[in-house]
Amino acid sequence: MRQIIIAGNWKMHKTQTESLEFLQGFLSHLEDTPEERETVLCVPFTCLNFMSKNLHGSRVKLGAQNIHWADQGAFTGEISGEMLKEFGINYVIVGHSERRQYFGETDETVNARLLAAQKHGLTPILCVGESKAQRDAGETEAVISAQIEKDLVNVDQNNLVIAYEPIWAIGTGDTCEAAEANRVIGLIRSQLTNKNVTIQYGGSVNPKNVDEIMAQPEIDGALVGGASLDPESFARLVNYQ
Ligand SMILES: O=C(CO)COP(=O)(O)O
After folding, report:
1. By residue range, what is the domain housing residue 26?
2. How far apart (Å, rounded) are the C-alpha atoms in residues 197 and 189?
3. Residue 77 annotated in ligand binding
4. Which of 4, 134, 142, 222 is the most buried (most CB within 10 A)?
5. Annotation marks residue 96 as catalytic
């Protein structure tokens, strides 16, 4: 059985005070959510301590948005698995397209970060996806396939989540057709040795399209940016039909 995971990626949003306001609005909506559905919030580093205390005893799991491959060292501005582990978090996003685009992340560094996450007992959420130009040039399959191959060298597929996030669908309101996301996710799965890896779709998931996306047979969850910032809208996503 593949685990269903609905994860919010808050990116660089919310202070500690705002994260408390979110929780006050959000947690009460989870009472009727099916037990087997995992709910995750990947929050800024500055909210981890506070969120970890406030989520204790709740069914919401916590995640970070990046991890360095070294345990410590002269890496200004980075964060290590040893540091993250202290907050009792379960997940960490690795290789998000915004990290690849703005912060020089390569398939090699993504691979090193995935290995570090697993070494520290965290489940990495690996993001892959093609740009608009790559899609228009008919390169989607080749791009995704190369990312999967390079990123997953020596990675344990028994402790892994993958998110297919077409870059052109992120934050644009321009969702990938559910059937097309399903097709690409099927291609990703065909490349894996563990066919039970949870593979999410990400890119403008919102309360209007979540039911159709989650009805697709290959799609095991969602990685949500904008719509995870509002408690009511994220609750609606977690409670998809
Ligand atoms: O990048 C994303 C999640 O990691 C998707 O962001 P949006 O849901 O805002 O499109």
Report:
1. 4-238
2. 8
3. no
4. 222
5. yes
